[in-house]
Structures are given as structure tokens and as C-alpha cells.
Amino acid sequence: MSGPDIPPLTDEEKASWPKEPIVALEKPFVDARGEIQPLVDLMMRSAVMIESKKGSLRANHYHKTDWHYCYVLSGAIEYYHRPTGSVEEPECLIVKAGAMVFTPPMVDHGMKFPEDTTFLTLSRNPRDQASYEADVVRVNMLGTDGLTSWKPGD
Fold it and tell me: For the segment 36-88, what is each residue's pLDDT rounded down to a tens digit?
């Protein structure tokens, strides 16, 4: 039995990533029928819609090779991030409906939900359980009472 089919990262791919976590969206195409909002124009292998209840936590991990864009459809995300291995407190960004955040590989990230929230996650790697588990490393960055004093190796 072979392992998951996860291609290696390339320098060209890394150069295409946004430079900041909050992604500046292109202007939508608008006509009499409505509008089309461009989100991501890259090859990806997973698109999922996630619903999160108010007060819940998600992520609390990093990915070895995967990246993902998270576009908030409704609600809001308290998005915490820092470079993997850092002992600094993570930065918190508030991502509201109509906004998108990008997470590259090797970035610890966690999400708290101050309200019921629905968001799309558009990812480089497949989302099947074997591929996901082969690429994710869980960290204890967020706890039930907020930030913890996670240190590399915990």
C-alpha cells in the first residue's frame, strides 16, 4: 500500500503565495445579473465548506506542505498564526464575512469562532483522511481558555 499522493513544494509555487495572511480580493465582475467574486485562481485539490458553532475552536496545527485559503461566507474567525517553532504569542486577525485569509505550510494556526460561522477552505492537498493526517502536525496553540504557553516539542 502506498502513501498519500502529496507533491513536493516548488520555489515557483512558493512565489505565487500571498505575502500577507489577509488576502486582498480582486474587484468582483458586476452586471445586471449580479456579481462574480474571484477567490483563488490556482490549482488545488480540495474545496470544503465548514460550519463552526459560536465558541468552538478549529485548527491548532500546522501543515508540512499544504496551504489553504479560507473565505468567510458568514460570521467571523479569530485567526491566530505564527511561524512553526516560534515561542512568540501568535498574532490574531479578525476575518469577517466577505474576507479571506491564507495559510502557507509551516505556520501554526488556530481559529476561534465568536459567532456561528460558515467558511470555504480551498487547499493544495486532497482532504481525504490519509492525506490530511500525513501532512498535519497538531500543536497546543489554543486552549479552551484562550492562548496557552505552547513551546516547540510539546
Answer: 999 999 889 999 999 999 999 999 999 999 999 999 999 999 999 999 999 88
Give, in order, the Cα–Cα distances in Å from 18 to each of 103, 117, 133, 145. Answer: 9, 24, 25, 31
* Helix H or strand E encompassing 17: none
φ and ψ at residue 140, rounded to 5 degrees: -105, 65
Q: Is the pLDDT of residue 152 over 80?
A: no
Q: How far is CA 20 from CA 24, 55, 71, 142, 154, in A?
A: 9, 26, 15, 22, 27
* pTM score, whole prediction: 0.86
* Third-level CATH fold of 42-141: Jelly Rolls (2.60.120)
- C-alpha cell of residue 5: 499522493
Do residues 135 and 125 touch, judged by C-beta distance below 8 A? yes
Q: In what order do the strands lie in the sheet with 46-52?
A: 22-23, 100-103, 68-74, 117-123, 46-52
CA atoms of 14 and 23, how far apart (whole Å): 15
Q: Which amino acid is at 3?
A: G
The three-point CA angle 63-67-71 to 5° equals 125
Which residue type does 58 have? R
